[in-house]
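Board work, copied verbatim: Protein translocase subunit SecE
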Amino acid sequence: MDVKYDLNSYVRVLKLASTPSWQEFSQISKIAGAGIFLVGLLGFIIFAVMSFLPGGV
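↓ predict structure ↓
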């Protein structure tokens, strides 16, 4: 494990990284929000179905 090489790699990546534009940030936020909503909706649907089954929650 070459620590110096690893640190140089991390520094190189950080130098290439840039702040996203507002449009890019907005698009990523919308997609992430939609994903969170869908996962929550799926969990709610599973909970609702399990509540109606005999021996459910």
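DSSP finds two helices and no strands in the chain.
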